[in-house]
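re: ur question from yesterday

yeah so i grabbed the chain u mentioned. its 397 aa long if i counted rite. heres the sequnce exactly as i have it in my notes:
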Amino acid sequence: MQLSVIILNYNVRFFLEQCLLSVQNALETIDSEIIVIDNNSSDDSCAMMKQRFPKVKLIENNENLGFPKGNNIGVAQAQGEYVCILNPDTVVAEDTFVKVLAFARLLHSSPANDSMGIIGCKLIDGAGNFLPESKRGVPTPWVAFAKITGLYKLFPKSETFGKYYAQHLRENETGKVDILVGAFMFMKRDLYFEVGGFDEDCFMYSDDIDLSYRMLQKGKSNYYFHETTVIHYKGESTVKDETYMKRFQEAMNFFYKKHFRISVLFSLFMKIGIVFFSFVKMFQGKPKIKIPPKSYLLYSSNEKLANKLTLILQKKVSFHDLKTEKMVISSSLRSGDETEIILDNEFVSFKESIAILESSRNKPRSVGITFKIIPKNANFLIGSNNSNERGEIIKIE
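ran it thru and got these structure tokens back, copy pasting raw so excuse formatting
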């Protein structure tokens, strides 16, 4: 078997459903398996899986065992030569795994064929914005200082100041990086076991940094691969509250104590930095006032669906007929229109949806445009306008 995709779920039933649909499509031509580990969700994630994805292996934990242990349980049962750790609030393109597998094979065929550690990919949020944590550097004291003071923003092309987000490497450039994000981590299964998998002493938040760093300690190279893009809604994985702040502090303390010699001055500096980071992250996640869309635009070939959505949303839903019109953002949309584009996955592939989100970025007329996807054979709209807060689910039964 070539690949095992490991998905750890906790109370994100609708995002999990969409994620699994995208993963299934992406694995059609690959000898593979999907393993979902549920950390004792209180929603109907497991019931949904048993009904809609009966062939997907489901492991039901009796308690929330955390990210590291939950993933370790899944990988322990994996049969693939490679494993991919994947968040449930992600959407992959139909050719994501084909491309990443080909890249991994290319690396293994090179003279230094034992040097590949983890491969990560380009991540965007639900509004199409690039997520800079797709590629990062080791958060040493200096790197942390440059991040805290904002020096990395003042000198974005500087290797000295820009290491936190690996700014030596452009967003659309593949290359070596130190740290990858746990939302998408692709590696050899045997290597995962060799380094010991995720450290179960860390509950959340520094586990991906720690695993990436241990790959470097083994003499491996981690790679950021830009040739496939994955949506990571991000805000779904964790609600930013007081518990989040406490766990984030504990996680960063865990990483520094484990890997660095700590002087009194260093400890004081890092405590200040950790508290600063924690508060920034917590307040970034404070819910903002949501302004409902003034209008909707459905990309589909099903005009009856547009009429149905008009009744449900209580607003006019314009119809972009894919039988006669191209798959592009309409030139009639203007900045500030507050239009929501609805992509019907029955006719718009996940790869096309991702491309539409990406193409909307940095276009003046796209300001104020938001996106939702209707997964194929699903009874809901799903999307997120802000990576720092929970997304939105609209049922359309």
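noticed a couple things. The chain has a mean pLDDT of 87. also The chain has twelve helices and 15 strands.
anyway ttyl
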